[in-house]
Each structure stands twice: as structure tokens, then as C-alpha cells.
Specification:
This protein is α+β, with helices and mostly antiparallel strands. It is built from three helices and 15 strands. It folds into three domains: about 35 residues; about 90 residues, Sandwich (Immunoglobulin-like), CATH 2.60.40.10; about 80 residues, Sandwich (Immunoglobulin-like). Strands 3, 4, 6, 7 and 8 form a five-stranded antiparallel beta sheet that branches. A four-stranded antiparallel beta sheet has the order 12-11-14-15, with no helix packed on it. Strands 1-2-5 form a three-stranded antiparallel beta sheet, with no helix packed on it.
Length: about 220
């Protein structure tokens, strides 16, 4: 094994230091390495389900030598594929906050997401994998017909809809105008006796919350 002149000189100077100084120097290098490693290990990103997309957001407290983040997605157990690249905005003193919207349409898929964190020396680390199962968390609610023809028909996947409570028709002030019993696969909302304007549909869910949909009669 061959060493360069500067490597040999550095090693010589290092071992001529007092033993206490050598330990302090080695500890400093070790602390830097552990600190950098812990920052990556502690880093996590999160998923959230929006109306027409999936939100991915993360925060890196310090971005020393980080060049960017590759967002990877796997669908229903398939291999991870790269879907986006976002360059780092921070530096060694400050980090960065990030948000990416995955707007590809999905319905019943189970989606896995992870981040590939790249460094300027060519190394990379992977974040923990985050999973979102759309079949479990989303109600698929659609209104038919899409024009102003009445009555409206609501169709939905009722996996997380509380069918023991009624759907409510409200005005924009929150006043309940009418209640409708939830059908097995569809519920008819008849606005023929109401004036043109904006109405709200309150749909109960199993977790005790309500999903509010906007409905316009023209």
C-alpha cells in the first residue's frame, strides 16, 4: 500500500502530538461523523392525502454537503421508480423545508414513497419508507350528472363512510336544509326545490369527522 507525501506528513505530525491531544482530535472527527449520521437517521418525511394529489413534505435541519433529494415511488409492491428531483436549498448552518405534490391519478393503489438523499461526494442515504393505502383512507365521491341537471346522484366507496348517519345538505352558512339516508352504493340529492347557488354536502365518516363537498346549482 502506497501513501502520498502529504498523507505520511500528516500521520507523522498527528502522532507527534501528546496522547491527550490525539484523543481529542479523534473524538472530534468521530463526533462529526456521528452527528452527520444521526441527522440523516432522525430525518423523516411525511405524507398527506389532498383532494386530487398526495402531498409529500419533509424538513432537513442541516444540509451540509447535501445536493438534493430524489423522490421515489413504488405502486402495489412494485420496484421503486424515481418521480422527481429537488435540489437542496440549505447549507451547513441551516436546513430546508420541502413540499412536493404527486398529482398522478390513483384510485385503489397502495403507494410507497421514500427519499434518496444525495451528497456532493457521490454517497447517498435513503429515508424511511412511508406508505399510504388509498383503498383504506379515501372515500371516492362523485356527483352525477356533472351538469346542472337535477337531481344529483352521489356515488362513493363507503369503506370509511358512516352509513348509520345521514348525508346532510347545508347552505353556505352551515344551516341544515335536508338530510338523506345513505344508500348502499349511491345517494340521490334533489335540489329541484332550491334556488340557484352554492350548497354544501356533509358526509359522515367512520373516524367521527365529516367530509364537506361543494355543490353548485345553476
Amino acid at each position: 500500500m502506497h501513501y502520498s507525501f502529504w498523507t505520511v506528513l500528516l500521520l507523522f505530525l498527528l502522532f507527534t502530538l501528546p496522547l491527550k491531544a490525539q484523543k481529542q482530535l479523534f473524538n472530534a472527527f468521530s463526533e462529526d461523523a456521528v452527528s452527520s449520521h444521526n441527522i440523516v437517521k432522525q430525518f423523516q418525511f411525511h405524507l398527506d392525502l389532498a383532494e386530487r394529489c398526495i402531498e409529500l413534505y419533509w424538513e432537513m435541519p442541516i444540509e451540509a454537503n447535501i445536493t438534493g433529494y430524489e423522490i421515489q415511488r413504488a405502486i402495489n409492491g412494485n420496484d421503486f421508480k424515481s418521480i422527481a428531483w429537488i435540489g437542496a436549498v440549505g447549507n451547513a448552518q441551516i436546513g430546508g423545508n420541502y413540499l412536493h405534490l404527486d398529482q398522478q391519478p390513483f384510485t385503489n393503489e397502495r403507494l410507497n414513497y421514500r427519499l434518496k438523499i444525495s451528497y456532493d461526494d457521490g454517497k447517498h442515504f435513503f429515508s424511511e419508507t412511508q406508505i399510504i393505502d388509498l383503498q383504506l383512507v379515501r372515500s371516492y365521491i362523485e356527483f352525477f350528472p356533472t351538469s346542472s341537471v337535477l337531481p344529483k346522484i352521489i356515488t362513493f366507496n363507503n369503506k370509511d363512510i358512516d352509513i348509520t348517519n345521514p348525508i346532510q345538505l347545508l347552505d353556505t352558512k352551515g344551516k341544515v336544509l335536508q338530510s338523506y339516508k345513505i344508500g348502499v352504493f349511491k345517494t340521490e340529492i334533489n335540489l329541484s326545490n332550491y334556488e340557484n347557488g352554492v350548497y354544501l354536502i356533509n358526509i359522515p365518516t367512520l373516524n367521527g369527522t365529516q367530509r364537506i363537498e361543494r355543490l353548485v346549482k345553476q
